[in-house]
Design brief:
Amino acid/polyamine transporter I
Length: 454
């Protein structure tokens, strides 16, 4: 209860530019600084590399247009969970929550937390992931960096309990810094004396290269992933009919421009083989253009970028779990808001603790490998909900331009991307399907229990 004795509800505290910066902050993390090397390994040719990033940008924009209408139609906490539940039923919606709340986002929080610790170790070696702290039972080693990652993830979880306004303000500051860093890389990279663009002629083509393109797209989609987060916090946006579409489309547009510009810098500074050989392509590129001092500044920029992405990605899953609990499909604690701060405090702390377990165990690497696959499938299913809504109610506060072509292209392309990921990484896809199968078992058990209690 709040001070007036009323049940706590979400506070609509986010404006348009909060939404824009939240979308950018959710997307821009380690991907643009690290995934470019993976893309170059999969498709070692400048034209194919840029094609992957352009295709990822177009896919994200089509998703933005689609989800802009969905968000305007249903400006509630939970996002795609609500869309899928209302159009395709309880089981697909439950599996979306199962995947997002217990696999994708906790695994993402663990991965980003460790990424933050790794970059912090560049400046403070004694805090790095290579420094042993102790052993868990069964001889599992735990590094000082892992402890830093756990403390960071839990600390930011507590910070987000204090209110969406507080979490949003921190995200705004960090995202502005991230955008400035990416613009600086693009400007100084393209104007450097040593910068030179490669040849884009004689584009190779083969069946094997086409198959590898799926793996490149998986890395690109991971880098663009995060726009979906905006729909989960729709219940905390001041003017959702205007700010949800604006936040999604402006935010994705900014990210696409930054990503393409930075990739041109990489190709101007390094050969494709050099890009594919380095795990930290942004630092390597700046070192090649300006020397080791510039690389150190890039490490600082990446550190801030990773920290900001962690702030943004802690927010969505507890809102999805909240909507699921309100439907009676999770324990009631997930569906309660903090009486003073109006945040899903239990869900935030549950995610923080589960993310800490994954961080200490080191098992999040395999989970992160499945994020592109499961995320792509469920985001596409949420997008397909638009066709059902349009049939039921043609009018909406915001209408997706180019309907039905744009959402059809988005959903169809997502299905093809998921197939490409299966072909490139069948083990990760199989593990993702196994986790979903377990979710089906839990759902059926819950349904049976609910039936027996009636």
């Amino acid at each position: 209860m709040n001070d007036d004795g009323q049940k706590a509800t979400f506070v609509r505290a986010l404006g348009l530019w909060d939404c824009v910066l939240y979308v950018v902050g959710s997307i821009v993390g380690t991907g643009i600084f690290l995934s470019a090397g993976v893309v170059a390994k999969k498709v070692p040719h400048p034209t194919w590399i840029l094609a992957a990033w352009v295709l990822g940008a177009l896919h994200a924009l089509a998703a933005g247009f689609t989800y802009a209408e969905l968000g305007a139609r249903r400006p509630e906490a939970g996002g795609a969970y609500v869309y899928i539940s209302e159009t395709f039923g309880a089981l697909p919606a439950y599996l979306y929550n199962w995947s997002m709340s217990f696999v994708v986002f906790p695994g993402t929080v663990a991965a980003i937390s460790v990424g933050f610790a790794e970059y912090l170790g560049v400046f403070f070696p004694s805090l790095g992931t290579g420094v042993l702290a102790f052993h868990l039972p069964f001889g599992v080693p735990v590094s000082v960096g892992q402890m830093v990652a756990v403390a960071t993830g839990l600390g930011l979880s507590v910070w987000n309990v204090l209110g969406i306004k507080e979490g949003g303000a921190l995200n705004d500051v960090l995202t502005v810094i991230k955008i400035g860093a990416a613009i600086a890389i693009a400007f100084f990279g393209l104007t450097a004396a040593r910068s030179h663009l490669p040849s884009f002629a004689h584009v190779p083509f083969s069946a094997g290269l086409l198959g590898s393109f799926g793996g490149a797209l998986a890395a690109v989609l991971w880098s663009y992933d995060g726009w979906i987060n905006m729909s989960s916090i729709a219940g905390e946006v001041k003017n959702p009919k205007r700010d949800l579409p604006g936040g999604l489309l402006i935010g994705i547009g900014i990210v696409a421009a930054l990503y393409l510009s930075v990739n041109v810098v990489y190709l101007s500074a390094l050969t494709v083989d050099e890009i594919g050989a380095t795990p930290r392509v942004a630092e390597t590129a700046m070192q090649a253009l300006y020397g080791s001092a510039a690389a150190k500044w890039i490490s600082a920029a990446v550190l801030i970028s990773v920290f900001g992405a962690l702030v943004a990605n802690i927010i969505p899953a507890p809102r999805i779990a909240y909507a699921t609990a309100r439907d009676g499909r999770l324990p009631e604690a997930f569906g309660r808001l903090h009486p003073r701060y109006a945040t899903p405090a239990f869900g935030l702390m549950f995610q923080g603790i589960w993310g800490a377990v994954l961080t200490l165990s080191g098992s999040f690497d395999q989970l992160v490998g499945m994020i592109a696959f499961s995320g792509t499938l469920f985001y596409a299913l949420g997008g397909a909900a638009l066709f059902v809504y349009r049939r039921r109610q043609p009018d909406a506060p915001y209408l997706c331009p180019g309907y039905p072509v744009v959402p059809a292209v988005y959903v169809g392309a997502s299905a093809l991307f998921a197939l490409a990921i299966i072909l490139d990484a069948p083990k990760e896809a199989a593990k993702g399907l196994a986790i979903l199968a377990l979710g089906v078992v839990v759902f059926l058990w819950q349904e049976r229990s609910r039936g027996n209690n009636r």
